[in-house]
Every structure is written in structure tokens, then in C-alpha cells.
Write a structure and sequence with these properties.
Layout lengths: L8 E3 L27 E8 L9 E11 L4 E12 L2 E15 L3 E17 L19 E17 L2 E7 L5 E4 L6 E4 L2 E8 L1 E4 L2 E12 L5 E10 L3 E8 L3 E9 L4 E10 L10 E9 L14
Parallel strand pairs: 1-10
Antiparallel strand pairs: 2-3, 2-18, 3-4, 4-5, 5-6, 6-7, 7-8, 8-11, 9-10, 11-13, 12-13, 13-14, 14-15, 15-16, 16-17, 17-18
């Protein structure tokens, strides 16, 4: 009876990543082309392992600078599964890059198309089998289009960005029924820098702050120690959610591998064995036998 009088439900619906510093294109279109080479990144996240219906997210992105590095272009495809819902999408990003004395200032725009499917027939209200309640016999599929924008500044040892990847609130589900949800605008602030502690040791702290209507402001605080520019070992804290360990390996000048493990600090810790995230980045365009300093952003 209460649901019959309820308005649209609102939630933090964008996928989350512990290794956000490797997947910045997913939250800010102005990042496109900022690494000054063609860069491809694949990331897989298995959240709350052991919890039935927990999120599983896959994403592949590629971006590159063109026009004497004044323009950045990016492409991202993703798939996010949560319970009975599955969201897949395609994002095209572009950035106009202004070279400054010590860094680059970029203004970005993006367009995206998302397809969200929800199979309510898989909801088991009765432990003995799938419910035959007519309210749970629908298979809903909704396609939505959106636009986003962002600003990003980076130098060799510092970056800061502000973005809204989706500016148009999207509605999913049966517009005349109770299975209606609404996605609100998400705002992201990112920043980080690299400090040299010695010839062989660097410290790279970073932060991501996320705000969306209907949910508390969430912050990710991260710090990683880089040893000889080859191995990175660090930790992360997500407010009121997780503590994480991170491992990064610069296997070659072109290949970087990352892994993170999240441990819940909420009551969910009793129902799952943690979250795992794997990242692989490959960069094209390096000249053979030429030493390339690793890029940290």
C-alpha cells in the first residue's frame, strides 16, 4: 500500500571504481587525450563477492590526442549488472585542450546512449520458486540518451577536474506503473599529485568526491607509494563504505597492471568476502628503444 503512494525512487546509479585514477574518462570527458598517446584501458570489478545479485562491472575505453594534441577523442563501452538489472552503454567524448606554461587545461563534452534491462520474472518472492505475481512478470527495456561535460587540468605532477557526465535526468521502467526509477545528475571532483620522496620513491595521493541528489556526499581518499617507478603499493578509504588495498605494476613502458581489494566497513561485511577490481592499460605510439618516463595520471 505504501508503494502505491510512493514517488519516483532515486539512487546513486553510476558504477563505482576503486581504481578511478585509471578510469578517469568514465567520470570526466575532458580527460580525453590527456596522456598524449593512444591509451586503451580495460577494467573489471566484482563487488561484494559472495552476495547474490551484487554489482559486476566491465568497461573498456580508448582515447587519443589529434590535431597536434589540441583535441582529445575518447570512446568507452561498459556493462553493469546489478541484481535483475543490466545496463550497457556507449560513450563518445571530446576535449578541447589549451596548452599552458606548466600544464594543459581541457574542456570536455560527451554524448552517451544507455540501454537498461530489468527482468522482474527472476525475482523470487516465494522461497519455493519464482513468484507468479503479475507485478513481477514484466521484462522492461529502456534506452536513454544523455550529454555530459567536464573541465580538467593536468601537469606532470598534478591534476584536478570537475565534471557532470550525465546532465539530463533519465527515467527507467514503466512510466505508468510502480516500477519507475529516476537517475539524478552526478557531480564528480577529482584531484591528485605526485611528490618525490627520494630518487627511488614517490608518493601519489588522490581524491574523488561524488555528489548526487538523494544520497550522501561520498569521498574516496587514496595514497600510493611508487618504488623505482615500477611498483605501486597503496591504500584507499571510501567514506562510510570500504577500506582498500591497491597494487600497481608498470610491467613495460606500454603496459600497466592494477589490482585492488575492498573490505566493507558497514554491516555488509557479514554477507560478502570483499570486492575485487582488475585493470589493464596499454599505450600505443612509443618509439622503440626510447626511454619513456611513466605517466602517473
Amino acid at each position: 500500500m505504501l508503494l502505491a503512494f510512493a514517488k519516483d525512487s532515486k539512487a546513486q546509479q553510476d558504477a563505482m571504481y576503486t581504481q578511478y585514477m585509471f578510469n578517469t574518462l568514465a567520470v570526466n570527458p575532458a580527460y580525453a587525450g590527456s596522456r598524449n598517446v593512444i591509451s586503451a584501458t580495460a577494467l573489471y570489478r566484482n563487488q561484494w563477492t559472495g552476495y547474490d545479485g551484487a554489482p559486476k562491472t566491465s568497461t573498456i575505453s580508448i582515447d587519443a590526442p589529434i590535431n597536434d594534441k589540441r583535441i582529445g577523442l575518447g570512446l568507452q563501452v561498459f556493462n553493469d549488472r546489478l541484481g535483475i538489472t543490466n545496463t550497457s552503454g556507449l560513450v563518445l567524448s571530446s576535449a578541447y585542450r589549451i596548452r599552458m606554461e606548466t600544464g594543459t587545461l581541457s574542456f570536455g563534452l560527451q554524448g552517451s546512449v544507455n540501454r537498461r534491462r530489468a527482468d522482474f520474472t527472476k525475482v523470487q518472492l516465494d522461497p519455493s520458486g519464482t513468484s507468479v505475481d503479475p507485478a513481477f512478470q514484466d521484462f522492461e527495456s529502456t534506452t536513454s540518451f544523455n550529454i555530459g561535460t567536464g573541465i580538467y587540468y593536468n601537469s606532470d605532477n598534478f591534476y584536478v577536474g570537475l565534471s557532470a557526465p550525465e546532465l539530463l535526468p533519465a527515467k527507467f521502467g514503466n512510466q505508468s506503473g510502480s516500477n519507475l526509477s529516476r537517475q539524478e545528475i552526478h557531480l564528480f571532483f577529482t584531484a591528485g599529485f605526485v611528490a618525490s620522496l627520494s630518487d627511488n620513491l614517490k608518493l601519489k595521493p588522490s581524491v574523488l568526491v561524488k555528489q548526487v541528489k538523494g544520497a550522501p556526499i561520498e569521498g574516496d581518499l587514496n595514497a600510493t607509494f611508487w618504488i623505482k617507478d615500477v611498483i605501486g603499493i597503496g591504500g584507499s578509504y571510501r567514506t562510510n563504505a570500504d577500506v582498500s588495498g591497491l597494487l600497481e605494476i608498470q610491467a613495460t613502458p606500454q603496459i600497466r597492471i592494477g589490482y585492488s581489494y575492498d573490505h566493507s566497513v558497514t554491516k555488509l561485511q557479514s554477507f560478502n568476502s570483499g570486492s575485487h577490481e582488475i585493470m589493464l592499460r596499454y599505450e600505443f605510439g612509443f618509439e622503440k628503444d626510447k626511454f619513456i618516463s611513466p605517466r602517473f595520471f
